[in-house]
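[scheduler] slot 2 assigned
[scheduler] job type: sequence-to-structure, two independent chains
[scheduler] chain ordering preserved from manifest
[runner] begin chain α
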Amino acid sequence: MPRTFDPSRIRRIWVRAPNWLGDFVMATATFARIRAAFPEAHITVGMRPYLRPLAAGTNWFDAVVETPKAKGIRDFVRSVRTMAAADYDLAIVLPNSLATGLVPFLARVPVRLGYQQGRPFLMNHGIKAQVRRRFWQKREGPRRWPMPMPLYYRDLLDVLALPGAAVHPELAVADGDDAWVEQHLRSLGIAPGTRLLLLVVGANFGSSKLWLPERFAAVARHFQERRGMRALVLVGPAEVELGERIAKEGGAIALSQPVLPLDKLKALVRRGAVMVTGDTGPRHLAVAFDRPVVCLIGPNDPNYTNYCLERTVVIRKDLPCSPCQRKICPLGHHRCMRDITVDEVVAAVDELLGRGDGTVG
């Protein structure tokens, strides 16, 4: 039976953050809600090391524990012992993996909150997500019924009846990062006040989410020639070659030397006029700063990320094979992305700029 929850007894809290950039940003309203509910508690977050800049400038956490993927049983045992020594009263586990639930269970954290599929005995407070069963895809088994991740996390905190229900993401940008971005733009020949078209051309998920490079290039040329904007191609470490190819073809600038770390990327996204992107992590940075976004969704189910769409235009083709959630198109044609045209994207950007949403932030 679940242990009775008494919020007045909570002094030390462990929060296990999501591992992906987009999921982490979508969880930020949850982090703020936890802090508001326990203003005097000592809150420690476990997160992937590369995500650490996303928490900078906020008051959500008192301590950060970097949680790279465990490389073996020794790492796992060390994590359990460290958590047990910290004497937490409450563990809030946002990821759904067995390992993230097993650590606080073995560390004997008395109140453990998390989704319970596959780990009902590990999480003594929580709920089961609604699932849909795909009998024609027996190898994959049942999938969670898609709902926006901020609502998914909100519903979890509702189990403890914590006050608040906000879902809009929150991020902070340091003054020094703003200054660095402005100086970097000047070094690239971009004058202050220039409207920036941000093109996010890669996707860590897999090739099935990639739009055609020549079409990104065509969008860059259009808005530089017709609206006097400056197109910047944003890339991750594995996307440098792709980004530089698109930038060369589209007369844009690839921000690949250096690839921007997340603290600088936050500042740049807030500075941008509009973003064109696939279903990527940087999309959620733009949402956090209320920047206009044109999001091209192919194989992924849009219901996982349909939140705060007031300044977002989602372009998606409703095909019989989508959403398949596959990293590589099993049919080999990538129609869900190939059928999205340059004209559609240009019209969507024009719509957002026409609303007056494209002013420099």
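[runner] end chain α
[runner] begin chain β
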Amino acid sequence: MLDITFIRQNPDIVRAAIKNKHCANVDLDRILSLAEERKVLAGNIGEINHKRNEAAAARSAESGKALKEELKGMEEKYQTLEKELVSLLIKVPNIPSADTPIGADESGNVVLREWGERPSFSFTPKAHWDIGPELGIIDNEKAAEVSGARFTYLKGDLVRMQFALLQLVLRVLSSREELQGILKKAGLSLNPRPFTPVLPPLMMRSQVMNRMARLDPIEDRYYLEKDDLVLIGSAEHTVGPIHMDEVIAEEQLPLRYVAYSSAFRREAGAAGKDTRGIFRLHQFDKIEMETFIVPEDGMAEQEFLVAIQEHLMRLLNISHRVVLICTGDMGFPDQRQIDIESWMPGQDTYRETHSADYVGGFQARRLHTKVKRKSGESESVHMNDATAFAMGRTLIAILENYQQEDGTVTVPEVLRAYVGKDTITKSE
């Protein structure tokens, strides 16, 4: 949520964000009007309280009683006004960063850099939806019989590969030395404090997800109405509120978490899209990074998370590109969004495998998560979330980039010690 003072002082900037992020249901004029009414009313309440103190000092019971009744009516009006104002404020999107390109959709995204050579094959490379079933490690057909479309069984060595990816991430993010090396290579001066591993809840109260600004679009969520619980669509949904309603001492920051979880999405807007394979499922697994940091280091922290993502993909030796997301394609709470798209030779295109979202103080303001500065003052902490590995999409990239003509798949060198073999062959 944006600070109302910022909105009042910068209405043109806010209008531009509303327009460029396609948030048509925001009534900014009403917000400004209510904010002005609230300001006047707060002043009147303060004045009445002052008069009540004077009446009490003069021991004027009659005057005090009349002022009390007047105050009660004003406070009720203030609460009603405040409720409406907050209900409108939560619909206002975050302000895109100055370097975020303005664009209507993904066609407005900008490639920042590319890494790695695309593999060349002496044969026509297959897509993962052919490789997986032929090796007996992906079974969408049986999953469809059991659970419906957009579910899968991962089996055998592909499961070992998934947990190898998890072990790789935990190793990298737990190493102060490796993180320091990533920072140095990226030219960043941040504390290399390691990440704390977390296994988060997979369900959360709808009001808390709303405070995270991730409840909408509600049609993309699995909502258990009887229990008022929502299945998370990413680990950051329940890791983000881990310091909800808390004040964190500045000396404790940055706080960094790496969370492994399943995630659930209806994919309501993806009818007929990516129906083959495991790229877009209703249930999938992710390793997510979530960090809390002082405001002045917020954007540098995002660059650090992107550098970690690039480091991980380079360890896998998979060609990829880093993309700055435009206003029309970025998330509602995001101030700046950067994606990584990995080369998928079986599909002859780049596909998104990672996202890094800098949300500034937008979520923290809704969550009441603050940092207490050494000066004694408090302000909203800044937050970042980023993918370490979206398991299914990373497995796709490995299967398609490391496939061999005989149908086997070579295990990336960095994962072999965890997988326990060099090559994935057909499961017996």
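[runner] end chain β
[qc] chain β: The radius of gyration is 25 Å.
[scheduler] slot 2 released
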